[in-house]
């Protein structure tokens, strides 16, 4: 599956209000507490190859996700493979050399409209973000999602939450 | 979980008959068609470290298993971590550098008695084997299992089916 995704910072109360007003016409899907563990590869630098292996524990269960390199320079479009797994997979991952590289905890509110998803993420240690996601279309769709971010006056951010947590301005 | 396990070759019709007679007083658990895919590690020589990562597809589902190095010189006792996973985990394993190293297909009949398990395995390309397994006890238990093999006049074999398939006498 190809995930077309853009993300923007919510930094002012005005932006926060604009986002809430904007999603008012969307369907509220639910609220989820997500704990994401990112793993480092035993012999590959995931930061350099722009890949990620993530274990997400959330209200719905435990999910293992592989994210491939981003495919264009404006959005976060990338290959994403996700499966539900037992939480005990952590032990197997450790045995075969994968180490915990970082943890991202957030509360995510999800909204849907047509084939789009909008997430309002409150990320521990970072603040509030809006993510827009589409499973249909490629780069043209990514530009459309960026237009929505722009109309909400949100600054686009291509870096992951993990990268932001580890960076100086994060 | 620590898996205490021994294995023996069934090479003559007399041995085969002796095994069938021996398990006559055990409970028949079931028959299972198992396809095992073994993976090579992207940067660790599993043959040298005596570890294994296996995906088993069988009647009961798909299982991912990590096997640690053997812990003694007589039995196949080793750490074993096993979880049920969706079959699509193969794609994630490939993306993170694990390659298919070999495949073992077998029909397994399982029998139980007290805390022991006995398997009669018909392995494609190798022939018939008896495996004895106990989840209780360590090395003393392993010796007891070896005694059973001896009483059935079966030649003990510490190598895995995969090793045997790749070796000259396999």
Architecture overview:
The structure is a homodimer of 170-residue chains. In chain A, 24% of the residues lie in helices and 47% in strands. Chain A has 170 residues and is α+β, with helices and mostly antiparallel strands. Chain A has an eight-stranded antiparallel β-barrel. In chain A, a hairpin with a 2-residue loop joins β3 (52-58) and β4 (61-70). The radius of gyration of chain A is 16 Å and the shape is globular. Chains A and B meet through β4, β5 and α3 of A and β4, β5 and α3 of B.
Order of helices and strands of chain A: EHEHEEEHEEEHEH
Radius of gyration of chain A over all CA atoms, rounded:
16 Å
Strand fraction of chain A equals: over 45%
In terms of structural class, how would the helical and strand content of chain A be classed? alpha+beta
Give the biggest sheet of chain A. Answer: 8 strands, antiparallel, barrel
Gap from first CA to last CA of chain A: 29 Å
């Amino acid at each position: 599956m190809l995930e077309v995704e853009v993300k923007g910072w919510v930094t002012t109360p005005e932006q926060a209000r604009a986002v809430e007003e904007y999603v008012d016409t969307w369907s509220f899907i639910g609220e989820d507490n997500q704990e994401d563990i990112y793993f480092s590869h035993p012999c590959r630098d995931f930061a350099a190859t722009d890949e990620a292996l993530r274990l997400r524990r959330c209200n719905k269960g435990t999910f293992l996700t592989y994210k491939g390199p981003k495919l264009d320079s404006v959005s976060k479009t990338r290959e994403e493979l996700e499966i539900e797994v037992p939480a005990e997979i952590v032990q197997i991952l450790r045995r075969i050399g994968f180490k915990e590289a970082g943890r991202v905890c957030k509360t995510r509110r999800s909204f849907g409209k047509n084939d789009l998803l909008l997430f309002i993420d409150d990320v521990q240690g970072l603040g509030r973000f809006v993510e827009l996601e589409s499973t249909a279309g490629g780069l043209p769709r990514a530009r459309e999602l960026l237009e929505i971010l722009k109309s909400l006056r949100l600054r686009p951010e291509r870096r992951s939450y993990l990268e932001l947590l580890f960076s100086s301005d994060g």
